[in-house]
Structure formats: structure tokens, C-alpha cells
Amino acid sequence: MIPGKSLTTYLLLLLLLDFVSAQQKNPSFEEVISLQSVSNPVISPDGRHVVFEMSATDWSENRFDRELWLSKDGATPVPLTYNPEADSRNPKWSPDGEWIAFISKRGDKNQIHVMRPGGGEAFPLTDTSEGVSNFEWSPDGRQLAFLQGEDKEKATEAREKKYGAFAEDDGEYALDWLWVVDFNPEWLTQMPLPEQMEDSLFTSRREPRVLLDSVPFTINDFIWSPDGSKIAFEHQPDPLRNSFFKADISIFDVAAGTHKPLVANPSYDGLVDWSPDGESILYQSNLNDSTSNYYKNDKLFRINIDGSGNQQLAADFDENINNLSWTPNGIYGTAWQKTVRPIVRIDPKSGKARILEAGPQQVWSLNFDKTGNRMAFGGRNFDGLSEAWMADIKFKELNRITASSNQISDWAVSQSEVIRWKSEDGAEIEGVLHKPADYDPAKKYPLLVVIHGGPTGISTPQPVPSYVYPIVQWLNKGALVLMPNYRGSAGYGEEFRSLNVKNLGVGDAWDVLSGVAYLEEKGMIDPSRIGSMGWSQGGYISAFLTTNSDRFQAISVGAGISNWVTYYVNTDIHPFTRQYLQATPWEDMEVYERTSPMTNISKASTPTLIQHGENDRRVPIANAYELVQGLRDQGVESRLIVYKGFGHGITKPKERLAATWHNWQWFGKYIWGEEIEVPE
Predict the structure, then answer these.
(1) Which of 149, 153, 335, 471 has its CA 20 to 30 A from that of 5?
(2) Which pTM was predicted?
């Protein structure tokens, strides 16, 4: 539904933009932001049913809500939960398929809830002081293990009472430890009324017990062994973002209550899965290399739980493989292959990986039933939205169980295609070219370049690309939109992802500018009406273009880096800069200057909009103030908009709508020569 105030906005858009045809309409900004999305489909142990998450937009409360939906035997899905004030997420079937557990914040903290697949009330299974961050059913279904942070509330209150409020950098955190709670379905038939909970027998029966605490590390993830006697867990010294370099893997013996290390390489070691026989685990590692975690392929290994038989798998596969599961029929995962994302099968013995040529063009969220013969996954084709799917492992029975794409059935959407061109240094670059539905090859169109983040992100063909950029509306207004997969993008192999090491901004700009030149040479664009924009790494590249090129008539910088030195000393991921620039500023100031937009601020001339979250830790807002002041000092038309209360992304619908209008207004002025007022 379109909210009351948004109706005016919608009518204004109709005045600005024509319908492409009687059957296809140009959607409003609100309608794009209001699209429901499907994610995280999970198949039942018997392979018959699928539960998944559905997100929707609540304009009155300014949030995106998430609920669980259920499809039985491939039938039309029905809502399973409805609690608009608390997201329901991370559903997991009990081993017997009789219950679905999930996390929901229906109070002060995230807690585990359980309910029957047939519907009815959801019962809170935990009521912990610090909340639950992750959980897993035990193989017999009698317990659920979960992670909970250590309780530091009393110690913090005592310190503040005596010394006031202060915080030490990288010194304020709580460790996540391993707990367990029993589960007996009979208890739920004795469930008291909510007001009777605290005094009930049920409360005492569901009292969690700690399995592993008072250890000098935090637990990131864990998985029960198939027989329930052990728990493999991934841990690192503390929960700080950069400590993942020191993540290791250990095995916890449930009966003995003891643990021992299994994998402890000098760099990142990440837990993936158990083998079906419980004799081995699957893990990913950077081995001894902590200098290239961001752009090189992760290495995949299997190892026996006694430490023997360590073997690398998929060694010849030149991309990261994610969403991995070890089933009785082999190891399955998904991986980008340029702009498609197929399922990959790995033979656990030979280690060979092969791509399965079936299913939708992009697949993620892959999981399997108890036998490993059936699976559920999220995926989409280039012309549709993400859907939930079911299939057997040979794809003889492929069933799309949702119909999200019906939301755009009467919209005028992008007609997208993948194009290729040569960059300045000869590197082949791909990009997605979005065209309007009524594209005319005889015309020359304004061009808007939208640059993805990452840099190891990727742009792919899709009907409604958006975020804070009104791409569909620009297309329907009569423009082309190019989304380049510049060097460093995922899907093109490790060597390609490494091409912007010590060359950030410089090589990225080559790729963008050569793509613009390619379209101009083909006679497709009007060279006097070209704009560029992007968020995060895309914002950085746009800032670099602002100060190093006069090719564009307007630029928008979203959460972009303007000075690598400023960024390095303020960001929450210092290793990112050290790895890509191969030095600290004190070791090699030249590379920091060569790749920083601010270095050539005196050459800037392009009108630039800057958008930034007030509390951004990833790209601190100092970068925005530095760029806007530099542009103002040069007399360049510029505007800085700060979105209050937000970090690195705009995560609420109203502010996302505002940011969309700000971009529509900016490019409308400098590309189309229009003065646009944002509706009151």
C-alpha cells in the first residue's frame, strides 16, 4: 500500500514520468522500496516443506519487518508468524520436523521461540539476560545449543557509578560463550499465561545451562556432530571486527565438558560443516597468509577430527565457494561465475569441483533435507526477483514455491544485458547495461553510471536495481544506466580481484571511463549528459572521478572515501587499507596520495552530491566533510546530506526514500536541467 503522504509523491511522479504503455507503469519510489523480498528458505528434514523469511516495509513505523512463511508440499506459501514489532528470522526445523525454532526479539533481547509448522502460538524457549545470537538443534531434538554474550552489566554499572562514563578503544566488548537449553514438547502443553511465566514450572524447566564459558575467546559459530556427542566451534580472541584473522577451530566433547584445538593456522580458519559420518570437518582457511584476506580466494579443506588427513578441496576452482553443505551425496555450495551464480558440487574424496548446469541463473541460501536428496534455496533469474525454490539434487523436480516477481508484472522495468570492453591497460571489463523498455537504437541517451561497493561486490542483470538510486525511474525517463564490474569485482577470479591492489581508484577509474567511452563510440549516449554515483567503494570511485576527471556533468558520492590516510586512522577495518595499499601511510605515503581523491581536489569541477550516515564506522564521516570542504574551497557546486542515526547503510524506508529523492533531484538538475522540489 502507498501511505497517505506518499500518494502526493506518487501523483507528482506520474506528472514527471510517462507510462511506457497502458499495460506497464512507472513505479513510484515508494513502491520500489516497498517490494517484499524472500530470503533464507529452509527445507524440512523429510524434504517436503520449506519455511522462509519474507521482509516487508512498514512505513508508519519506518522499518523493514521480517516474518516467517511456510510452503507445505510445494503449495502456495502461507504466513507462519505475525509480530510486526519483532522480526522473526533464522528458522530451523527440529530433527523430527515437528517444530520450527527461530529467533525473535519479542521483548528486550533476541530469544529462541518454537512453534508447530501447522501454526498457532509461538512459545518462547529462552529468556536470557544477554539475548541469543545463534542456535542449533541437537541431533536428537532434545536440546538447543546457543550463543550468549557474557553479562557485564553489573561491572559496567559499578565502574560508571565511581568513575563516570568512558570507553577504551578496542577494549569494550563481551565474549560470546556456548549454552544449552532442554526441549520437551510436553512442557509446551503446560504453557502458562504470559503473566504467570516467571513463577511457572515451565520457567525452571527451560533454564539454560552453560556448556563452555570463562574461556579467553569468543565463539563465532558452532555445529553439533551428527551423533550429538561433540560440537565443533569457531573462535577468536575477542569479537572485534579485525580479530577474524586469528579465528581457529576446536572440538568440544559434550559428555566430558572439555575442548581441544583442531585447526590453528596463523590466519583465518572458518568452520563450515561436519562430514555425514562425523569423522571429519570441512573448513576454510587463509593458512599462513594474513596479507590478502580481502581479495584472494579462500582455501577449502577437510580434516579428520583427530587432526589427520588434512586435504585441500576444490584447489583448481578459481572463485570463493559459499553456502557450503556436506551431504551424503557430496559437498554442495554456490559461487559467482561472472554474473551468474550456479550450484557447485565438490567430491569429498577427489576434491574436484564441478558446476551444475541447472536451476535459476543465481542461487544462494542452499540447504538440504536429512537424506541429502532434496534441497531448498533462494535464487532468481535475470528478469525476476528473488524466489524460494525446491529441487532434487539432479534438478528433475525444480519447483519455484514463491511468486515475488508478480509484484512487478505490470511495471516498466529494466531491459538489462551484459556488455564487455577493454580498459586503459587492456584488461577486459564487463558491465551491466540497463535500457528502458522502449529503447530506440537510433537515439542517443543520457548515461548514468552506478558503481557497486566492495570492491568485491558485483552487479548483475536485474529488472529493478535500486537502493537509494531511482534507476527504473531514470530508465523510464529516457536514460541508459551502466553498472560496471570494475577490477576487483567478485565472479572473475582471484587475479582479476587483485588488479586494484596498490592501484585503487586509478585502475577503477580506467574501467569506468573506458566503459563510458565504449558506449560513446557505439553512438548510444549523449556525451554532454553523463553522471556517476555509488555507495561505499562505489562512492570512493565516484569521489576519485570527481577530482580526477571532467567527463561527468554530475556525481553523487555515497559513504565514500576521500582520503585514505583519514580513512585508515578512523575506520573499523584498518587491515582492509593495509592489504589493498600494501602499506601503512607511514610506510608508503606516495600510494596513499596517488589513490586518494583529495590529492587532486584542485582539479575538481563536477557538481557533487555527498550522502553519508552520521555514525558510519566503516567509512567515517570525516571523509565526507573533507571532500565537501575541499570542493567548496574550489568553488565547485556541492551538497552534503547527513542521514542522522545511520551507520554505513541507509536501513530505514523513510530515509531511503529521502536519499532517493536527493539523487533524483541532483541528477535532474545537472543532467536534465530541471529544478525539482522534494515533496513535503
Answers:
(1) 471
(2) 0.91
